[in-house]
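We treat protein structure as text, and this decision shapes the records that our systems exchange. We quote a single record here, exactly as it is kept in our systems:
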Amino acid sequence: MREIDVSIVTYQPDLELLRQLFLSLAESASGSVRLNVLVLDNSPDATAAARVQALPELQAGGAFARVDVQHSAMNLGFGRGHNANAARGTAPWLFVVNQDCVLEPGALAALLAAVERDDGESAAWEMRQIPYEHPKEYDPITLEPPWVSGAASLFRRVAYDEAGGFDPHFFMYAEEVDWCYRIRHAGWAIWQEPRARVTHVGGAATSQFRSRMLIALYDSRLRFFRKHYSRRFIHWHMRIVRAGMLRAALLDWRDYARGRLAGDQLRARLWTYGKVSQL
């Protein structure tokens, strides 16, 4: 029997969407697959975790062998949240999945089939995201990616622990890139499994301007580069970023002048571009 710890970090979750995730996971639970659901809720409202715990799919006697929902007194972020979940589990496999994902029928079985074919030298398998895949290169023959997405990937526990889990200094974004960088350097392989498909609802939300998330994205990228790249590379990276922020600000000023952007929206965006430029 395969035992898998399912790690989910939530923040003000959409409960109906979360139920769809649990239902899609329950479809994979069987006599040959034991699923332990580990949830860490980072919401500022402590009652959010209680609402998650009360969902009918998580009640005793259901599809899951174990359910453990906890609330964090502070927002730990993505990587530290999953590390906390991993510390509460003991299964040889750790399935990290976003709160806004829904597995397609047979997706987890496809991941486990890839595990069965493995020679024991692989650390992680990434699911194929729908409707939008990450814009990164893959080996066209082997389907080996440079990194696997933390939105929906299966990790070998031994490898996850060998790398020390996700670097806790990354609050959001790039923590899985950093983990893969370190684990590949240690000699492990990582893969994408295209037959294991997951709908990532958050991946479709590309039109909404979110200040804190944009700042976190650039902060994490810079943190990754400072950790693994030269000072010269970082210097030119930030010059390009600042030029991009200036261009974005000028375009927003143009849209404001033409009545396409409200004053409060302009102020929020200019504040964000300034924060990014100061990183």
Summary: The chain has two domains: 2-204, 211-277.
